[in-house]
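Section 5.1 Outputs to date
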Amino acid sequence: MMEDESGRLRLTGNFLKSTQLATGAIIAALGTENANGDFEVIDIKLPDLAPQLQRWGVNAPQNGVEIAGKEHGKIAFVSGLGITGTSSDTLALELLTDYLLGYTGFSGNDENSPSLGSSKISRLVIAGNSLGASVIGDVASTNSGDAAAKKAQPKKYGYDASAYNAAPITQLDDFLAEILPSIPVTLMPGEKDPANFSLPQQGIHRTMFPQARAYSAPPVRGDGKPEAGWFDSVTNPWDGDVEGWRLWGCSGQNVDDVLRYISIEGGDSSPDKDTDSDARMRIMEAMLRWRCGVPTAPDTICMFEQPNLTMNLLLTILSRVISIPI
């Protein structure tokens, strides 16, 4: 189905069998209308890959000129840590910490050494699902007794405080506090993290990290420009500058939702993890060529649409609300 401001047309033709499209993709279709009123497609054009900015294309360094021959740092990406607050997470987090901090036993000048590669990491980006939501619920239910007794307990302020399990977020805070003195971290929320459900997800509030929040940048006051801190809890999706490179990222809800409607060999229904990864890579490549990061929103992904209001209009609305007599 193709839609524009004039109406909708059903797309048909053998050409569509070899083309992967999703709801929300912007395309140009070439073809003719057949006797059934359908649009017979013979060719499709996509926006294709956007022009890429050169390094320091947005924010130039203070000296104005990049040092020739300077080695570029590396950016580490991790996702799906699934921290549950139990002892089963200890080994995985310790191995990740040892690698990021260069404790993997480097000796000599071997270019293939893991420690040599980790020594060049300039920032760690945690792209969502840092906590294991399903296990959090199981642990909370176990600690508070069976379901019947839990429902019988009185609720203060409309919720059951005994159902809250702080172990996962505490363990994540300990992990961040251990690596933050050496590596700056950007933390994105995911589908299973304590953030709002609809996109864009707001960053996990830094008050949930008593130790790691000491590395955050101070709050912006007035018309000041936000500063990049050593620990940044950002939104999902997120765009920013790291070492002069312009990045845009999402925690994966966009890819998961597209795979629910597009039949690609190796999708979610495939037990083979390698083919599943290939399918996700193909979807991400297609999104780059569509120039659309979350094509299925707001149809099948909850999205918060921000109204295009100026500050003057907001101040006018607030003044009117305040002036209403009670």
